[in-house]
Design goal:
mainly alpha
Length: about 280
């Protein structure tokens, strides 16, 4: 029963709930992020600029953002394929495969990095055969992309899977009855329904990949100017007690990630707004 702007709820009142929410976010999110900016401010503008524009640091930016973006794009394609198979087909071992999708969530990242390195090294099970055709994965930027793809796949699958389950198959049958090909049905009927979920999965996989450290540090080889990622540089500066330098790199990564995610959210909002307008 409504009374003015208030509404009955099983949870505490709006004021109490909002207070706990703000306190929770402040302690776990706002205060740590504020500390990063405050620590960076102690080094001065010239030192800050010199730190974040060092040639070694710039090379790590290119690898971190480039590999994360490439891995997220790969996961969008193959994550959709995995979700499609799990939703639309029944086959022996389906539940096992469905459970394996979540393995990167549970597997420690360091263990994942060691396993990927062992598999894709020159003497590894897969790397040995790739080496014969001139493809080297371990200790190259390609290995970084492989590791980031591995840890980001579940985000796309688990985001797309429930949406795909809710897609009305009668609409697909209607499109087929009107003469649409399989590709036309997928592109004009199914894909528009999955687009917001795919974009969300891409954003989650990208954000996860940008901050990844454990699974990459082993397979990359950590060669400066070639396979060195920015999180590794941050850890190196922390080990050298250069806390201001570490937070300076963290600020750049934080701001760049925020801008990218904000841009993706704007695209999602516009897409949802257009679909609502068309539906209305």
């Amino acid at each position: 029963m409504k009374r003015g702007w208030k509404q009955f709820s099983v949870l505490p009142g709006f004021s109490i709930s909002l207070g706990f929410t703000l306190l929770y976010l402040s302690v776990l999110v706002l205060l740590p992020l504020s500390a990063v900016f405050l620590k960076t401010a102690t080094m001065g503008w010239e030192a800050f600029w010199s730190t974040i524009t060092d040639q070694r640091v710039l090379a790590s930016y290119r690898l971190s953002f480039g590999a994360a973006f490439a891995a997220a794009l790969i996961n969008v394609v193959f994550g959709l394929l995995v979700a499609w198979v799990l939703v639309r087909y029944s086959f022996p071992g389906k539940r096992v495969i469905d459970g394996l999708v979540d393995l990167p969530f549970a597997l420690p990242t360091a263990v994942a990095g060691i396993a990927l390195t062992a598999i894709y090294s020159e003497n590894g099970v897969v790397g040995h055969y790739l080496q014969t055709i001139g493809v080297k994965v371990a200790f190259t930027p390609l290995g970084v992309i492989v590791a980031l793809t591995f840890i980001g796949l579940p985000f796309v699958v688990r985001t797309v899977q429930p949406v795909l389950e809710d897609v009305d198959r009668h609409v697909e049958e209607a499109a087929a009855s009107l003469g649409a090909t399989r590709w036309q049905t997928f592109r004009r009927v199914i894909l528009p329904e999955l687009y917001p979920a795919l974009l969300t999965g891409f954003a989650l996989a990208l954000a996860r990949a940008l901050g990844e450290y454990g699974s990459v540090v082993f397979i990359s080889g950590n060669m400066p100017m070639y396979t060195e990622i920015t999180p590794l540089l941050i850890m190196s500066k922390l080990e050298q007690f250069d806390y201001a330098g570490a937070t300076a790199l963290a600020v750049v990564m934080l701001l760049a990630s925020f801008v990218m995610l904000l841009f993706i959210n704007i695209i999602q909002w516009r897409t949802g707004h257009r679909r609502t307008a068309k539906g209305g």
